[in-house]
Design brief:
about 375 residues, mainly beta, Immunoglobulin-like, 32 strands
């Protein structure tokens, strides 16, 4: 159960919903080189910079940057996750008896690490300190290869050996499975800002696009991209995919048009790709409009059994979109209701909160929008 620390002063604090939106700005990107037990580093234009590794890293697969300035890399052949700092220096590693051949990874918006466990057909969940939390599975999951999340927190897991994608809700409950476009041995899942899923077919040598309902939209192929593996988007909407049979990386633009092939870096069976997330650019306009993020006092307050909560997202820049969550907690910090969890355009919003199943007492409602968190108190009297 998710918890938070209650403070009794109204404040704006730094927050970032990692799994809700693609990064606003990206820098270097990393590629795991499975055959050489190393990670290649490239700048945002695809120029090779350097390679790093750590003793014991064997068969690196999934790779993620986290908001605590660390890099997590799955070591498939040792059943471990290696942790590096932002300077690519090895810090520590962790594992669990539930982890068997870790492959792709993702970070949830609760700050939990989802690790695909290939050989026992499940997803293993850790906190960012490496403590085991739980596992989940479902459907015809067979050969768990990667994990991804959409803007609503739904979870997608690739089943390489059944050539399907298994969808779970944000609470890790199985929903349905889908395939299409000749997809075979799905290796990696990434999504663009429109929640279109790009899924690499390692066995079909294509990238198949789906919506979040599992409907097939399009198929992408290229002669330099047989057996595609990793996929990642940068802040321009360009996506990069690795060919683990040709030891290359291929870049496409935001319209899925071929841009370039990257072969430098002595890649040997490149698997996963991850972009470094940079801090958003802060302008004078941004600083002025921060105060315009509003979370109104609920009305009525005290209330029984329903109340209304209003919030406002300002128009910071044109075409501005923001992941927003509005969550209600009790005085112990236990989450009791999620009222909003989606991408929002600028504007004012109002939601209803019903407390029919809750006891009288003090509750807190907390709005997360982009880099800001607003919290207010309300009272339920029955």
């Amino acid at each position: 159960m998710r918890k938070f620390t209650i403070t009794f002063t109204f404040a704006i604090v730094v927050f970032a919903a990692y799994a809700i939106l693609p990064p606003e700005r990206t820098g270097n990107f990393l590629v795991t080189s499975f055959g050489s037990d190393s990670i290649a580093v490239y700048d945002s234009l695809g120029n090779y910079i350097r390679t790093f590794t750590a003793p014991g890293l064997d068969g690196p697969r999934g790779i993620v940057f986290t908001l605590n300035d660390k890099i997590y890399i799955a070591s498939q052949n040792t059943d471990e996750v290696f942790v590096f700092d932002s300077d690519e220096q090895f810090i520590t590693k962790f594992t669990s008896t539930e982890l068997d051949a870790p492959t792709g990874m993702a970070i949830s918006n609760q700050g939990e690490l989802y690790v695909a466990s290939f050989d026992n057909d499940q997803v293993v969940v850790f906190d960012l300190d490496g403590n085991f939390l739980r596992t989940f599975t479902g459907g015809s999951l067979n050969g768990t290869n990667c994990v991804a999340l959409d803007s609503h927190g739904a979870i997608y897991v690739s089943s390489a050996l059944s050539s399907k994608i298994i969808k779970f809700d944000a609470n890790e409950n199985f929903l349905f499975e889908f395939t299409g476009g000749g997809l075979s041995s799905p290796m990696s899942i990434a999504r663009n800002t429109n929640d279109v899923l790009y899924i690499s077919g390692g066995g079909s040598s294509n990238i198949v696009k789906f919506d979040t309902l599992g409907n097939m939209l399009d198929v992408i192929t290229h002669s330099d991209l047989p057996a595609p593996q990793g996929i990642a988007f940068d802040d321009r909407g360009h996506f990069f995919s690795s060919s683990f049979s040709q030891h290359k990386i291929v870049e496409f633009d935001e319209n899925d048009n071929y841009v370039q092939t990257i072969s430098a870096g002595n890649l040997q069976v490149p698997r996963s790709i991850a972009f470094e997330q940079l801090d958003p650019v802060t302008s004078v306009e941004d600083e002025i409009t921060v105060a315009e993020f509003k979370l109104d006092q609920n009305y009525p307050n005290p209330f029984n059994p329903t109340t209304k909560i209003k919030f406002t997202i300002p128009n910071v820049v044109s075409s501005f979109k923001l992941g927003a969550t509005l969550i209600v907690y009790d005085v112990l910090g236990n989450e009791v209701a999620t009222l909003v969890n989606e991408v929002k355009v600028p504007g004012s919003y109002e939601v209803n909160f019903s407390s029919e199943d809750l006891p009288s007492g003090i509750y807190f409602y907390q709005l997360h929008t982009g880099n800001f968190t607003l919290t207010k108190k309300m009272i339920l009297l029955k």
